[in-house]
Amino acid sequence: MKPVMTFALMTLRSLLRRRTIWGISIVILLALFGIGQIPGYDVSNEGRFILDFGLFGLEIGALLLAIGLAANIYPRDREQKTVMPLIAIPLSRGQYLMGRFIGAAMVQAAAMLVGCIGLMVILLLNGHPIPADLFPATCLLLVEGWFLLAVVFFFSFWTSPPLNAPLTVLLFILSQMSVSGFISILPGAEGFMRFLRLLLPHMDVFHIKDPIAHGVGIPGVYFLLAALYGLAYMSFMLSIALAVFRSRDLK
Questions:
Q1: What pLDDT is attached to residue 188?
Q2: What is the DSSP code (8-state) at residue 129?
Q3: Rounded distance between C-alpha atoms, residue 119 and residue 89, angstroms
Q4: Would you call 114 exposed, middle or buried from its count of C-beta atoms within 10 A (0-12, 13-18, 19+)?
Q5: Measuring CA to CA, which of 14, 136, 152, 192 is 20 to 30 A from 99?
Q6: Rounded distance, CA 66 to CA 97, Å?
């Protein structure tokens, strides 16, 4: 485990030196600030509006961070010929993947925490209370972001970065569709589409912005089960990514 954590910290430091990551984080904060600046015109549900769009902004931010963090890691390592020395002596392919993933996941967690704090500040500046479930809701969005991060790593082992982003976004969209909406894409193959939708994750379990915005209490066990659900899919995607990585000829 020590080699993995050492490599993860190396990944963390290298990612923090990239301008892309800082650019995405600044865009997220500016978007949250812009939401807070929209005039409320004394509308009673202004706080709901800020919460709703603020959490939506954090969700899109998690998607952008996943793509920005991981899409170029392996292609860049292979292009610069640094991956072969790493997995030849100090690391196995599994340790390489986990080190890269954990390092990127730490950066994503820090960015989401800053975004959550920024949303709290915006609510306070506009005279609205901070919901008790705001931080747990952000944690669920972070778990969703980690799943997307695993998806980006999976795509990075067999496709190019320009194709990685649209494939990840496509999966992100499909995973939020209802069963009926998914079947409507190909009505002639209802059984196949229903089975395919069953295999895809249901990302709607991570989206609790509506009940939070309306002050509906959410049981703590829901957060636990939803987080375990997301971590299970994340582990599944990492397992598939490792299987693909092990089959790749790096020469």
A1: 79
A2: P
A3: 45
A4: middle
A5: 136
A6: 15
For residue 150, name the pLDDT band (cuts at 50, 70, 90): very high
User: What span, in angstroms and rounded, lies between the C-alpha atoms of 113 and 120?
Assistant: 11
pTM, full prediction? 0.87
Q: Which residues contact 66 (CB under 8 A, 6 or more apart)?
A: 108, 145, 148, 149, 151, 152, 168
CB atoms near residue 192 (< 10 Å)? 11
Q: What is the pLDDT of residues 16-31, one digit of tens each?
A: 777 777 777 777 777 7
What does the chain come to in residues? 251
Is the Cβ–Cβ distance between 204 and 114 less than 8 Å? no
Q: Tokens in use for 61? A: 């931010």
Structural domains in the chain (count): 1
**Which residue segment(s) compose the domain that 91 sits in?**
2-247
Query: How many angstroms separate the CA atoms of 111 and 169, rounded?
Result: 20
pLDDT value at 125 more than 90: no
